[in-house]
UniProtKB/TrEMBL annotation:
It comes from Panicum miliaceum. Belongs to the GDA1/CD39 NTPase family. GO terms for molecular function: nucleoside diphosphate phosphatase activity. This is Apyrase 3. It comes from the Eukaryota. The active site is at E180 (proton acceptor). Keywords: Hydrolase, Signal. Residues 1-22 form the signal peptide. GO terms for cellular component: membrane. The keyword Lipid biosynthesis does not apply. The lineage of its organism: Eukaryota, Viridiplantae, Streptophyta, Embryophyta, Tracheophyta. Pfam families: GDA1_CD39.
Length: 268
């Protein structure tokens, strides 16, 4: 699942309206078929010319249970190349931004360690051309637009004042549920090498993150009981501005039934 999340985070770059986005858009189409490559070094201007550092991108995945950092490095052909011994720099903190509802500055400060990690990896001379994107998911969608925007504004201020990364306030936002699903669909099919072939060979459904999965199960359930609720619960559930009935089954929560319900939904 971690690899799927990593590729989904990388796909967020396609939203960036920047020179970096132009590089992606005009890259050789074959780039999208390569998972990784070996860094290409520019022709040396002299015996002691420094090696090319490549290009970088910084992605924050702000989920309901925690915030995750992905730093990617690319060569001139837009192939992913390693950072240290891994294909990316990855780090995470808990809890998620939504846990700080009503305390926006605390929410922003919670990701400061991740921002510092990103700054330690990207060469200082490249920071101004390195885009930073934060996509928040179900957690911030749940707490309401006003509180979510307060947190996002505090995060924007933190990024703008505490780093020199390429900054655009529109790059720090809440993803729609449909966007989240589309990114994960593309990521999973990409990792399974199912893109570009017969439609029916592709994976047509996904398991979502910790909170989004429960919400999709509740929406999918048409019967009297919900298999994702603890025994004894009966009430309503609000997700993304809509209200749903939620009554536990007599046997309580059932993982296998939840999985089957998610699998029965066609998101594409």
């Amino acid at each position: 699942m971690a690899r799927v999340v990593g590729v989904a985070a990388l796909l967020l770059l396609l939203q960036l309206s920047s020179p970096y986005h132009a590089i992606v858009a005009h890259a050789d189409p074959a780039v999208l078929g390569r998972k990784a490559g070996v860094a290409e070094e520019p022709a040396a201007a002299g015996k002691n010319a420094p090696a090319g550092p490549g290009r970088y991108a910084v992605i924050f995945d702000a989920g309901s249970t925690g915030s995750r950092l992905h730093v990617f490095r690319f060569d001139r052909r837009m192939d992913l190349v390693g950072i240290g011994d891994d294909i990316e720099l990855f780090a995470k903190v808990k809890p998620g931004l939504s846990s700080y509802a009503g305390r926006p500055q605390e929410a922003a400060n919670s990701i400061l360690p991740l921002l510092e990690k990103a700054k330690s990896v990207v060469p200082s001379r490249l920071m101004k051309t390195t885009p930073l994107k934060l996509g928040a998911t179900a957690g911030l969608r749940l707490i309401g637009e006003e509180k979510a925007e307060e947190i996002l504004e505090a995060v924007r201020d933190l990024v703008h004042t505490k780093s020199k990364f390429q900054y655009n306030p529109d790059w720090i936002n809440v993803l729609e549920g449909s966007q989240e699903g589309h990114y994960l669909w593309v990521a999973l099919n990409y990792l399974l090498d199912k893109l570009g072939g017969d439609y029916f060979s592709r994976i047509r459904y996904l398991r979502f993150g910790a909170f989004a999965a429960r919400a999709e199960i509740l929406k999918a359930k048409n019967g009297a009981f919900s298999s994702c609720m603890l025994r004894g619960f009966s009430g309503t559930y609000t997700y993304n501005g809509q209200q749903y009935d939620a009554t536990a089954s007599p046997n309580g929560a059932d993982f296998d039934k939840n999985f089957d319900l998610i699998g029965s939904q066609k998101f594409i």
